[in-house]
Amino acid sequence: MNYREFKKGRINVSILGFGAMRFPTLGSDAEIDILKTEKMLDYAIDSGVNYIDTAFPYHNGMSEVFLGEYFEKRKIRNKIFLATKMPVWKVEKKDDFDFYFNIQLNRLKVDFVDFYLLHSLWKGSWEKVKNLGVLDWLIKKKKEGRIRFIGFSFHDKFEIFKEIVDSFDWDFCQIQLNYMDINYQAGEKGLSYAFEKGVQVIIMEPLKGGKLASPPESVLKIFDSFEIKRTPVEWALSFLFNKKEVLTVLSGMSDLNHVIENIEIASKYSVNFLSEKDLKILEKAKDEWLNIKSIDCTNCKYCLPCPYGVNIPKNFEIYNEGVRYNDFKEASYDYEFLKEEERASNCRECGECEEKCPQSLPIRKLLKLVANSFKKLV
After folding, report:
1. In angstroms, rounded to a whole number, what is the distance separating the alpha carbons of residues 186 and 277?
2. What's the pLDDT score for residue 377?
3. CA-CA distances (angstroms) from residue 228 to 17, 83, 347?
4. Distance CA 342, CA 339 (A)
5. Max alpha carbon distance in the chain (Å)?
6. Which residues contact 302 (CB under 8 A, 6 or more apart)?
7. Contact 281, 256 (CB under 8 A)
8. Is the bond preceding 305 in cis, omega lying within 30 degrees of 0?
9. What is the pLDDT of residue 172?
10. How many CB atoms within 10 Å of residue 211?
């Protein structure tokens, strides 16, 4: 296992972290398969993984409960760095910070959390908890020794990310990044910005929810054409391990074989390991993924502004994401994030956009397709 120094704590963190969101189950999401999960964690920790990331809602609250029992049974609390997160969407008043935090300490059977995050910040949730005094609360808990390091996970635009980073002396943050999402949310721009400000970065969704582990045949051909043979998982993880700004990469492993493969990959790669030729192959693979779409919108934005506020290119982009990865449920989260007037469902069929479109797309018809595709998911 390779490690990187977490400078504010002067500790070494494994470059592969164990995400506790996708444990194997016996049926419902709350029924964690204890035997399989214990074997996975045993193997990971014995192999040097020392960062475990969970959160209040994972496995309907049972992820924290399971980990608490596991730590107590194995007597390994001092061997790992534990991360969990404040469910900011549940917070309505200042007292809720202590309420949820105490529940988490009890579930996890611990007196303190190493890495504590405000979970899934976006503009609205950030403003809410900031106005409720969350930063003073975090400082207090750190002084009390209940939290060692303070951070946040993020899901919004780069401009909001920059605002949050600049607002406090954060120890770390967590963003979504993979070779397909370099311009998504905080993206590579946010990774660099945080690093330059002394905020070390933890990566989530390195395989885009597992989608990059099973690319289409056209993408596989690009990987197979390269002189060095790597699996799709190895290509995706190496892209992140290669970056000096990355502290650790979280993998939501759900099978022992995933653990074995990911640890093997994490033992191979270090900063700047990939060559220019390697990175060009990843760029080709990304371009091939992007060629998989249903609506041939070029994002020229000639159709904007829509007199009713519909963000036509963004709707098409989100729909194409659903087609590309065959996952409209995941794409629906981005659709839901649009303002009501920006959604395809707000189209009034005036036709003004079609007169401006250089691709001559039947925009009104396509917006109906988008609206109907997400109607039952949002």
Report:
1. 26
2. 83
3. 26, 35, 49
4. 5
5. 68
6. 356, 357, 358
7. no
8. yes
9. 98
10. 19
- With a CB cutoff of 8 Å and minimum separation 6, the contacts of 129 are 86, 88, 91, 118
**Which helix (H) or strand (E) is 16 found in, with range?**
strand 16-19
Whole-model pTM above 0.70? yes
Q: Is the pLDDT of residue 341 over 90?
A: yes
Cβ atoms within 10 Å, residue 324? 18
DSSP string of 231-283, one letter each residue: -HHHHHHHHHHT-TTEEEEEE---SHHHHHHHHHHHTT--TT-S-HHHHHHHH
Name the band, by pLDDT with cuts 50, 70 and 90, for residue 27: confident
- Give every CB contact of residue 10 below 8 A, 6+ residues apart in sequence: none
**Average pLDDT, rounded, for the chain:** 96
Q: Tokens at residue 156, please?
A: 């919004």
Beta-sheet pairing, 246-251 with 51-53: unpaired
- Torsion-angle region of 10 (φ positive above 0: left; ψ -120 to 50: alpha; else: beta): left
Q: Six-digit token pair at 42? A: 């045993």
Short-list 253, 270, 362, 350, CA closest to 316: 362
CA 112/CA 119 separation, integer angstroms = 17
**Confidence tier at 376 by pLDDT (50, 70, 90):** confident
